[in-house]
Amino acid sequence: MPTYRIAPSILSADFARLGDELLDVIAAGADWIHFDVMDNHYVPNLTIGPMVCQALRPHARRADGSPVPIDVHLMVEPVDALAQAFAKSGADLISFHPEASPHVDRTLQLIKAEGCRAGLVFNPASSLDPLEWVLDRVDLVLVMSVNPGFGGQSFIPGALRKIERVRRLIEQSGRDIRLEVDGGIKTDNIRAVADAGADTFVAGSAIFGANDYRSVIAAMRARLAS
């Protein structure tokens, strides 16, 4: 069985008490913390920057003191300067959309040179062609199962076919690459997404919109184990 990871997206957290929300969701069993970074240019919304990552980094720890990875999804254009800034602010993984960088291979090298794991993100209608040329450089592939820009959207079923294709490419490469899915992930569909090949699941409103974060994460794990 794959090692599954659940990555709550703080886009859906209460920003008035963001530090407490981070601690609460980690205590509830989060594996990673997902940062949705939007620039009101590449996508029609504006969210958080490197200063927020830097402020939260010391708090992204479990009760035993072990760090919780910060997973940064850049929905920005251009990419390079912000990727470097987030790396310096404590990010562990940084992913970006290939169409937002004129030199995808160079941007991947830049992220890895900063000591972070690097990933590519593919929108619902984006071609996977760029992935085949840089599969030897990526540590993560993120498939969007909604159109990027806003939280709380419904899962697009066609994303399952893209997840299956990415899983085949990863298996053919023989490399240890995480396959993450973001958008409309809930307890009632997480098993189908895993069956398509995903091993890492971003969930925003499904977790932060609930009264009990622990029960939602536990229910997701139960579905994954079924």
Write the layout of secondary structure elements.
Layout lengths: L4 E4 L9 H10 L5 E6 L11 H7 L13 E6 L4 H9 L4 E4 L7 H10 L3 E6 L6 H6 L5 E5 L14 H15 L4 E5 L7 H7 L3 E4 L1 H4 L4 H13 L1
Parallel strand pairs: 1-8, 2-3, 3-4, 4-5, 5-6, 6-7, 7-8
Helix pairs in contact: 2-3
List keywords for this structure.
about 230 residues
Beta-strand content estimate: 15-25%
End-to-end C-alpha gap: 11 Å
The number of strands is 8
Write out the strand line-up for the largest beta sheet, numbering strands in chain order. 1-8-7-6-5-4-3-2
Order of helices and strands: EHEHEHEHEHEHEHEHH
Provide the gyration radius in Å: 16 Å
Structural commentary:
The protein has 226 residues and is of the alpha/beta class. The chain is 36% helix and 18% strand. The chain is built from nine helices and eight strands. The chain has helices at residues 18-27, 50-56, 80-88, 104-113, 129-134, 159-173, 190-196, 205-208, 213-225, and strands spanning 5-8, 33-38, 70-75, 93-96, 117-122, 140-144, 178-182, 200-203. Strand 2 (33-38), helix 2 (50-56) and strand 3 form a beta-alpha-beta unit. Helix 2 (50-56) packs parallel to helix 3 (80-88). The radius of gyration is 16 Å and the shape is globular.
